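Colleagues,

For the teaching module next term, I've prepared a clean inverse folding example: a structure given as tokens, and then the sequence designed for it. I'd like students to try predicting residues themselves before seeing the answer, so please don't circulate the second half yet.
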């Protein structure tokens, strides 16, 4: 198994995805195998950060004391340009179908992907 690329879960301003060399399947969550065909060790790549909003949900009630300062905040499902879907934070005014671009912002003590309206 190859060494993993650092991403936002490790404090880097990057979104990393995997693509299977055998069948071409693209997946967001790191796995040691392809979720579609089972081939081992899919390759990792850095995403462009470009995508389109698939779904949006405005959170108006803090789930924890650490998130209270951020309310209201928007949680999105984003269809990324590379072919995977991910959940992330985003601008409150975003709507389904909007083109977006990822940046990174602190949220409850961690650096997280944050999508803004694309140009």
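(Answer key — instructors only)
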């Amino acid at each position: 198994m190859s060494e993993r690329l650092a991403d936002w879960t490790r404090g880097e301003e990057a979104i990393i995805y995997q693509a299977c060399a055998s069948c071409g399947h693209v997946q967001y969550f790191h796995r040691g195998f392809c979720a579609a065909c089972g081939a081992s060790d899919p390759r990792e790549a850095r995403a462009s950060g470009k995508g389109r909003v698939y779904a949006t949900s405005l959170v108006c009630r803090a789930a924890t004391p650490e998130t209270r300062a951020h309310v209201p905040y928007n949680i999105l499902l984003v269809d990324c340009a590379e072919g995977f879907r991910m959940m992330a934070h985003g601008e409150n005014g975003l709507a389904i179908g909007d083109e977006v671009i990822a940046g990174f912002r602190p949220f409850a003590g961690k650096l997280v992907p944050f999508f803004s309206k694309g140009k």
